[in-house]
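Protein folds are increasingly written down as discrete tokens. With that in mind, we are printing a sequence and the tokens encoding its fold.
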Amino acid sequence: MNYKNYFKSAMIGCVLSAGLLTSTAATADKYEIDLSHSFIEFGTMHLGFSILKGRFNKFSGEVNFNEPSSSDADSTTIEIDMTSVDSNWAARDKHLRSADFFDVDKYPTAKFVSKEVKVDSDKITIIGDFTLHGTTKSITIDASKIADGKDPWGGFRVGFKGDFSFNRSDFGVSKNLGPKSEKVDISLYIEAVKK
């Protein structure tokens, strides 16, 4: 056996295999979030008596998604303008922007950057880092794809829904509203257009 040629062939095979793996991982489609058809909403108990709902009117981001199954290239990035908080009451929104809560003068944005995306049939699990109020914690978003397809303008769109929850005090938002107001629920309704 010509070992020199054998090892040469083996090395070529390894290089080609690595190239194929890299190519596969890089094939995720890139989608830009369509702000006009997307929503980020929040809900929390108000003193234990009722549920306060609101939303953030300004945000941006990108979704990289590989069909039909997940790959290393799948990722999600979302940046939220915290000054755009809207609870349908101007005085309350001003208070939410203050140092008692979001302290937007110091922390004007919140951000989520995914680290891992798992797709199991219709269920999508997105694990990543969520930065709010200057603190970064790992969170898990339970998501699902609503639909995808061509739009009337010749583009291609995809829609997702996702939910996650966190405790305010874990991110340094410690204004005391009672233990029943500690948990915050976030719902994301994302429509994105393929680049």
Summary: The mean pLDDT is 87. The first strand starts at residue 29 and ends at 33. The chain has one domain: 29-194.
